[in-house]
Amino acid sequence: MSGGRGWGVGVPVQAHPALAAAASAALDAYTVATTEHDRAALAAIVADGADGTPTMRIDVLVEDAILGALARHPVNVLTEETGWVDHGSAVTLVMDPVDGSANAAAGVPLSAFSAAVAVDGVFTEALTVWLDTGRSWWAGPGVPSSLRTSGRRDLAGAAVSLLRPHPANPPAAAAWWEVARRAARVRILSTSCLEGALVAQGATDAFADAATDTHRLVDLAASVVLAESAGGAVRDVFGRAVELDTDLTKRWSGIVAATPDLADELAEVLSTAYRAAS
Amino acid sequence: MSGGRGWGVGVPVQAHPALAAAASAALDAYTVATTEHDRAALAAIVADGADGTPTMRIDVLVEDAILGALARHPVNVLTEETGWVDHGSAVTLVMDPVDGSANAAAGVPLSAFSAAVAVDGVFTEALTVWLDTGRSWWAGPGVPSSLRTSGRRDLAGAAVSLLRPHPANPPAAAAWWEVARRAARVRILSTSCLEGALVAQGATDAFADAATDTHRLVDLAASVVLAESAGGAVRDVFGRAVELDTDLTKRWSGIVAATPDLADELAEVLSTAYRAAS
C-alpha cells in the first residue's frame, strides 16, 4: 500500500518553460534572500504593490529575480507587486512570487512560489513550490494528475484551513466562528497557496477565506488547477467566478475544497453566517 | 548580516546519548511509517495512551521504535503512550514521539519528535526535530544557546500561535478570541512542540493553549528548556508550575513566549477573559 504523500520535488520536467523558469528563479532568490538578510530586513516595507497592499523586501527580491528570468520567455505576467505585464501573448502567468510573505520574512518555514498558466484566458496548468523544502505540486494539460483530494463531502468531520479571524469585522468573524464550530479540525498556516496544495493532495479537506474578501487572484489561481485536477473545487463565498482578470485590486473570499459538495456547503455556511451577522 | 534561521540539521553531536538515540529512532521510524502506510492506516486508533487520549498507529510505530532504541540506555522515560517507565536512573526523558500526530497521519508536513532531559527532576536539555525535514532545535547544559527569541514584550503587535478554538467551551472560546483580537497575527499549526521551537527561534512571538487544559507535560517540556535558553519563558494560564510530574493525566494550559513579560501578559489576558466568561 502506497503512503505516497502526493507532492513532487522541485520543478517538474513537464512544466511550461516560462513557469519552470519562474519557479527555479524563485527558489534560488528565496535561498539567497533568507541567507543574506535578517528578519527585519526581509519584512521591511519597501513599496506598495500593484494589488494595493504593502510590499515586503522579500517579495521584491524574489519577484525581481523571476521577472529577470522571464526576459527570455515573452508571456504575459500578472503578479503581486508589478501587476499586469502585457506581452501580447496567448499565454499568461498568474503568479504569487512569495505566498506567505509574513511567514517567510519571520522564519516560519511555510511559504511558497505559486503560479498558474492561462491560455487564451483559461487556466490550464499550475505549480506551487514550498520554498523551504523544494516540495512541489503540479498539474497540467494532457497528463493525468498525481494529486487526489480526500474526497470528503461534508463539513462535519472535515479538517479546514482558514485565514486568521478578524474580530473587528463582526459579520466575517461570525462566519469564521461558524466554520470553527462545525469542523473537526481548524488550522491557520498563513499561506493560502500551500494550504490549497494540501487540499489538492488530500492532507486537508478544505481551505477558506471566511468572507473577508482578502484573496487576490494570485492567491487562488494555482489552487483552481491543482484542486480541480484532483477532484476538488474552488468557489467564492459570495458566488463570484474565480477567473482570469487583470485588475489586481479585485478581491474574492476563496474556498478550495476536496469536492464540489464540500465547497458548496462551505460557501452556504459562510455566506449565511455572514449575512445573519450583518 | 546573518540571516541564520536558528535551526540545526538532524541530531546534534552534543546531545545526551539517550536523547540522540531516541531522536534518530524517531526520524527513521517516521520515514518508514509514512512510506509504508496510507493516511487511514496511520490515523487508525489502535489503543488508549497512558495520557488518557486515543493513540494513532503512527504514534505507536514511532514510540515502539524509540523504546527499542532506548534498551541500551537505562534512563527513566515518560512518554505519551506508554507512560512512566522507571529504571531508577537520575535521568528522565520526557518525550512526545510524534507531536502533531493528526498532521503526521493526514500528510500535513508539520510534526515533530520532541523530548526534554531531566536530571534529578530538573530539566537541563531538550531537542525538537521536525520529522518532515530533519531540522532541529537543541539546547543543553554548558553550551551557549544558538537560539534567540524575538524579544517582544507586548501582546499588541505580537505573532501568536494558538491551539484551535473550542466554541463548545464558552469561557475558553472567549479567552481564545481575546488573544486573536489583540495579536497582530494568529496561526494554528497544530503541533505544540514545533510552535514552541519557533518561539525559541524568534520566528513567532508566543504560543498558547487558550485555557483549555489540553497540554500534557510532553507537549511543553522541551519548550521550557528551548525557550528559557533563548531568553523566553513558559507559563501556565492558571499559574500552575510546569515541572516534572510522572502523572500523565495532569494537564496545563501552556504559554511559551519570547519574554517573561509577554508570557505574563498572555496569562493575564487569557485567565481574565476566561473568568469573565465563566
Automatic annotation (TrEMBL), chains A, B:
Does the record carry Magnesium as a key word? Answer: yes
Q: Does the keyword Metal-binding apply?
A: yes
Give the PROSITE patterns listed for this entry: IMP_2
Tell me which domain of life the UniProt entry assigns to the organism this sequence originates from: Bacteria
InterPro entries registered for this protein in UniProt: Inositol_monophosphatase-like, Inositol_monophosphatase_CS
What is this enzyme's class at the first EC digit?
hydrolase
**Gene Ontology biological process terms from the UniProt entry:** inositol metabolic process; phosphatidylinositol phosphate biosynthetic process; signal transduction
Transmembrane stretches, start-end? none
The family database entries (SUPFAM superfamilies) matched by this protein are listed as: Carbohydrate phosphatase
Keyword set for this entry? Magnesium, Metal-binding
**Obligatory cofactor(s):** Mg(2+)
Q: What is its EC number?
A: 3.1.3.25
Gene Ontology terms for molecular function:
inositol monophosphate 1-phosphatase activity; metal ion binding
Q: Which positions in this protein are listed as binding Mg(2+)?
A: 80, 96, 99, 219
Which reaction does this enzyme catalyse, per its entry? a myo-inositol phosphate + H2O = myo-inositol + phosphate
Its name, as the record gives it, is: inositol-phosphate phosphatase
Q: Which organism is it from?
A: Nonomuraea jiangxiensis
